[in-house]
Amino acid sequence: MIQDVQKIAQALIQSRYPVALTGAGISTESGVPDFRGQAGLWQDEDAVELLSLTTLYGDPQRFYSKGLSLLQVFRGKSPNAAHRALARLEELGLIRCVITQNIDGLHQAAGSQNVLEIHGNLRTSSCVICHAVFPFEFVEKAASEGQIPPKCPKCGGTVRPDVVFFGDDMTSDFGRAVEECSRADFMLIIGSSLQVAPAAYLPGMVPRIAIINLDETPYDESAEVVIHAKAGTVLPELVRVVEQDPSLKRRQR
Ligand code: APR
């Protein structure tokens, strides 16, 4: 594995504009389940149906009771060594932007500055009519008081969590992610099965990619380096290697 880590280190140091794309796998070592891994959330068919537009709009009683409590699994966790290592790579100028499919906010909690949340977040909720933004807790409080679906105090529209479900439009961060990928000359992909569009199209926009993922992905063949190991093990090793590399010092001058 060390040779592969050294290859990624060299690619990051040599690249003009390296970016990262992350998925649920970078957060599993923080206690957040992924979706399609060995113990993924989507093993439970109920979960797939619960966190869907069909339930959100078609059965709000069920969504705002069981769906909201299921979303708690993504909240209140702490960043792990992988998140911290990625934040350090950004600090060293070796990652310009973290494009994440995750809604857990752990990249920002670890210190990453330039984070694009293309599948939304669990900090806010918004009115579907006037787009007024409220804290996520607004929908929890309204639902606990029996107001289902939660109503916008400004226009009376429905207020929903700012999470992207299948069938939803992508966030405005996705447009910025496309711009970042069009500038990028290298992408480090961490903890994603790369099976969900349009996020899964992003690696195809970047000339050079490397993958750190426990399971195989559809992009393994086209990646320069593939490491099938835990992000929490590989990324701190990657930081150790780049920090020792003399060419990094030259680059930072
Ligand atoms: N280190 C490295 N890889 C890991 C780790 C780990 N500690 N734990 C899990 N993985 C890998 C798994 O092998 C799996 O291939 O992370 C990948 C996670 O893939 P998914 O569960 O499909 O998650 P993701 O790719 O983020 O899913 C994309 O699908 O359901 C939607 O909106 C949801 O954002 C999500 C999107």
Structure notes:
By secondary structure, the protein is of the alpha/beta class. The protein has 2 domains: 1-32 and 79-119 and 171-247, TPP-binding domain (Rossmann fold, 3-Layer(aba) Sandwich); 35-73 and 122-163, SIR2/SIRT2 'Small Domain' (2-Layer Sandwich). It is 38% helix and 15% strand. The chain contains 10 helices and 9 strands. The chain has a 6-stranded parallel beta sheet with strand order 3-2-1-7-8-9, sandwiched between helices. α6 links the parallel β2 and β3 (115-117). α5 runs parallel beside α9 (231-244). The longest helix is centred in the C-terminal third of the chain and has 14 residues, at 231-244. The chain is elongated. The chain starts with a helix and ends with a helix. The structure holds adenosine-5-diphosphoribose. Residues 23-25, 28-29, 34-37, 40, 101, 119, 191-193, 195-196, 213-215, 230-232 line the site of adenosine-5-diphosphoribose.
CATH class assignment of the largest domain: Alpha Beta
Radius of gyration: 19 Å
Specify the helix fraction band. 25-40%
Structural class: alpha/beta
- Overall residue-averaged pLDDT value: 95
Number of helical elements: 10
CATH fold-level label of the largest domain: Rossmann fold
Series of secondary-structure elements, N-terminal to C-terminal: HEHHHHEHEEEHEHEEEHH
Largest sheet: 6 strands, parallel
Low-pLDDT segments, ≥5 res: none
Task: Give the tally of structural domains.
Answer: 2
Provide the spatial order of strands within the biggest beta sheet: 3-2-1-7-8-9
Ligands and ions found: adenosine-5-diphosphoribose
The gross shape turns out to be elongated
Strand content: 15-25%
CATH homologous superfamily (4th level) name of the largest domain: TPP-binding domain
Label the CATH architecture of the largest domain.
3-Layer(aba) Sandwich
Report the end-to-end length measured between terminal Cα atoms: 30 Å
Number of strands: 9
